[in-house]
Amino acid sequence: MALGQIDHLVVSSATLAEGVAFVEETLGVEMATGGEHPLMGTHNRLLSLGPDCYLEVISVNPDARQPPHPRWFDLDYFTGDARLTNWVVRVPDLEKALHRAPDGTGQIHDLRRGEYRWQMAVPEDGRLPFSACAPGMLSWQGADPAPKLPDHGLRLAALEITHPEAEALSVALAPLVKDDRLSVHSGTSGLRAWIDTPKGLIQL
């Protein structure tokens, strides 16, 4: 089975406006438009990190109906400042990839937003394994948004994951994704991304 690739980073926020302000102030560029996810009761804005990768700001949509199931990325319980909370890997065959993924990665849902169609694994409780340090997983059904986003010259330089069970997490990731920008270290659960910008390297 072909290994997956980093598809996008996820910045969660109490409101979409707060998340957008955090990213724009940190990285110094304007985010592109996004859309709504009726199945999850969320909405987003996007930012290019190159032709095959992007950053997503996501939050609960106050104008949407409360879904009858937990929202993805544990957004039902999000508190605090906007911050990098998750990462997502795209795979050519989601069903096959889930056989190798950590328990609790989720069940497959068919999703759509505007012209885009994709399948994504969503955990039943909304919480991804390894304290959300394991990736969300999706498979695009046709075009994906990354190539169409305005390119401000930003690129993902590195994604560092820390977790108390770093060795177990590394073993879990090995059959799913291979990327020289990705590293796993022992420590408190968390994600750090370094973005290469026209003004230099910036940590997100």
Helicity level: 10-25%
Average of per-residue pLDDT values = 95
| Number of extended strands | 12
Side by side, the strands of the main sheet go 2-3-4-1-5-8-7-6
Q: What does the overall shape look like? A: globular
| Low-confidence segments | none
Our count of helices gives 3
Strand content: 35-45%
Distance between the termini: 32 Å
Overall radius of gyration: 16 Å
Structural class: mainly beta
- Describe the biggest sheet? 8 strands, mixed
Helix-strand string? EHEEEEHEEEEHEEE
Tell me what the structure shows:
- With 204 residues, the chain is mainly beta.
- Helix content is 13%, strand content 40%.
- It has helices spanning 16-27, 94-100, 166-173, and strands at residues 5-12, 32-37, 42-48, 54-60, 83-90, 107-113, 116-122, 136-140, 155-163, 182-186, 190-197, 200-203.
- It has an 8-stranded mixed β-sheet, covered by helices on one side. Strands 10-9-11-12 form a 4-stranded mixed β-sheet.
- The longest helix is centred in the N-terminal third of the chain and has 12 residues, at 16-27.
- The termini are far apart.
- 39% of the residues are buried.
Short description:
By secondary structure, the protein is mostly beta strands.
Top keywords for this entry?
about 40% strand, 12 strands, about 200 residues, mainly beta, 3 helices
How are the SSEs ordered, and which strands pair?
Layout: E1 5-12, H1 16-27, E2 32-37, E3 42-48, E4 54-60, E5 83-90, H2 94-100, E6 107-113, E7 116-122, E8 136-140, E9 155-163, H3 166-173, E10 182-186, E11 190-197, E12 200-203
Parallel strand pairs: 1-4, 5-8, 9-10
Antiparallel strand pairs: 1-5, 2-3, 3-4, 6-7, 7-8, 9-11, 11-12
